[in-house]
Please model this.
Amino acid sequence: MQNLSYAHGPSNTPLIGETIGENFRKSVEKFGNREALISIEQAYRATYKELWEQTTALAKGLMASGIRRGDRVGIWAPNRFEWVLVQYATARIGAIMVNINPSYKPTGLKFALEQSKVDLLISASHSRQINFVEMLDAIRPTCEYPKQTIIIEKDWNALLSAGAEISDEKLATREESLQFDDSINIQYTSGTTGYPKGATLSHHNILNDGYFCGVRMHYTEKEKVCIPVPLYHCFGMVLGSIGCISHGACIVLTGETFHPDTVMKTIQEEKCTALFGVPTMYISMLDHYNFNKYDFSSLRTGIMGGSLCPTNVMRQVIDKMNMTQITICFGMTETSPMVTQSMVSDSLEKRVNTVGVIHDHLEVKIVDPQGNILPKGAAGEVCVRGYAVMMGYWDNPTATSDMIDKNKWLHTGDIGEMDEEGYIKITGRIKDTIIRRGENISPREIEEFLIAHKAISDVYVIGVPSVKYGEEVMAWVKKRDESLTKEELILFCRDQIAPYKIPKYWKFVEEFPMTVSGKVRKVEMREIAIKELAFNGKSN
Model:
């Protein structure tokens, strides 16, 4: 297998064979007086001992509300300390927490509630001018779920008080009945086509994925991890929250939404040692007019996920933000989410051109369309096998079997290459490839070229329909210099990349359509482009 694109993650550290509650209890016993959770916007702080006591009260409140092992408890809220309490309280009583996207509109909300059959929903009253209560009221006449609703701002204290009737012994009996292979979480994928699918994850899936993410970053109990990414997504909930709790580290939430100034101020005042974000978040901080007034000397490590980072941005993050041990990762909700991650000692080249190497205890291979493992250096679909692979899509066996083959390999849909050292480079999605006049074009290749232009802050490339050529290339560009023109960019491309790769269409934007987890929604970009360019199927 030496010359084939296959690797496994050997490890001297065993997998954790515990439930999330058991692991949490051990951290409380070791680090009881250390800070566990801080929510800056809410002026909330809790030690491990206090966080345990608060999740105990909430767990009892849920049991008093009739929640049994395996029942679904939805959480529909932005980043707040209550979100984290719900995460650990549901895990301790064996309820399956359903992550509801805070940006859902009525159709998406109704689908998630009905598809997972939510028994009890814990919801914020509002967020970012979105009125959650009004939306719930609007769908109630045609939606029988949730069976119960708790509005945090109105019903939280009553829920906690109701738990007084549940004894410590009754809670302990429930906890002792749980198994680490129990399903514990449903996370709906972004749903780029059709309705989302509910990736169902177990204690074993997410506890180990968060833990080994921390291992690769050399976590100790002294870490304070700044988490501006959404808890709703695996990035925040697993790599962030569980990654911290399993190592005795401190979770630092900056606010309900990402604001670069708030994040930078938090890093300085809390002396955070790690920072999580997608490339656009780091770019927003580096470009912020207040950037130079903040002290980043406490930072050491962190994660940049969602997409590959441009070289100039990574260099600035390392040099100007002191993140000398920042890591790049790759994964998806269906893999809990981490699959590969760079090492803290990796070169700049490895951190910008690859997504690292396979994680401990996991396997990866790169295959051709027939499923044959390709030689190293050849591009094919990335497949993953091991503890991190989801239990399946909730109540959707057909979609599950389409994703996971008979040999338990999960097919990611991502195109990648493996080098001689086992590092993997992601070059695109199977469905992202632009086919123009029979030529396969990688959007990532063009993006990497264009981002080198000093007047470009960020850029994404998509394919749009063409009657003549099948597809044409289109670039969405966020400017750093407002004087930048389309003509200047065309001239920049000329004689540097193949003519058929030079975008025919250019769109200058302030922001890109994003999922709540910070991934650019290229499907939505394509839909917008088709409308704006008025494609009518007759010419172009």
Summary: The first strand starts at residue 6 and ends at 8. Residues 187 and 199 are 5 Å apart (CA to CA). The radius of gyration is 23 Å.
